[in-house]
Input
Amino acid sequence: MKIIVAPDKFKGTFSASEAAITITEGIRLACNAASYSDMDIVMKPMADGGEGSLEILAGKDGQIINAATFDALMRPTASPYAVMPDKHTAVIEAASSIGLYKTARHERNPLLTTSFGLGTVIRTAIEAGCNDITVTIGGSATSDCGAGMLAAMGCMFYDMHGAPIPRPCGADMSRILHIDPTPLYALTQGVRFQILSDVDNPLLGPEGAAAVFAPQKGADAATITTLEKGAASFSTEATAVTGRDFRSAAGSGAAGGIGWALRTFCDARLTPGAPYIAEYIGLEEAMKGAALVITGEGRFDTQSLHGKTTGYVASLARRHGIPVMVMCGAREHGIQSNLLIEAGITAVCATTDNTPYPSTFTRSKEALRQMTCDAFHYLLTQ
Output
């Protein structure tokens, strides 16, 4: 029996590679217990443009460089990026510098956070000689329409009095009334940008960056309103300056508007992250002849079925008529069974179904390994 193990990371717990190894260990334990030896397990750790994407895209050949930068609250930090073997391609992960996971829950406020740190890493890579930049933008703590990132790359912002705004954050969007992108254009001349995104939301509106993603980053209702007004004001000025209008384009709302900013100011190409990474690692080719595909993530919910790793892996397996099992830490219990069937998902197993939350977090690998073992032992002995 051939099984493909292609999970995403379990956010805040372990990487996609660690998840794949742990699930594989659980399968092997079940095989040993059932005296079953005919098992071919192929591990294909996945990502969708969020945290963990850098590790997978860099692989064994990318040179990891630690850049001095800032987190979303402008605290000094180091963020790795990868220079690929051609020496001019860089892969940069937004979450590594301005990731939500790098801020404590009580610190999260998208009015105060900035994408300046991501821009600092991009500038570092360009100044080191890279002219082909891939940015994976999922998992940010920001909702500043990428203004902080643009400022770090040289873009100049001014308020109504002509005073500069050197490091814009979410609260500054409505204050920006004049933009001078000339230094930014000088830095990025001849540089190609590609964005890998894990969502397809527009910048503005009920499905936009502020409405959908800011609550995850600490925003209350009043903050969402402020961010939406600021994004509308800033993007209107940016459209007038650049002549590019991507406000309604799919993916522009990703990472609090970073997707929109890179497309508007850097003419970036936006690509859905999960399909890109799946092709990069040869996932579909590996599925040939498989009897089962296992994917998963830390929390499985309705959003998992829309552009995220789990939903994409399931859709890919469904094309080939392969059943899919989802292994996760926790799950949304209200998902209708018909949605799972339409997505090609046969079963969902969560460690929290049978293990209390505290134990799941303190013994996460053991819980995932044992859950996988139990599920496969049942399959093998029926």
In short: The first helix runs from residue 16 to 33.
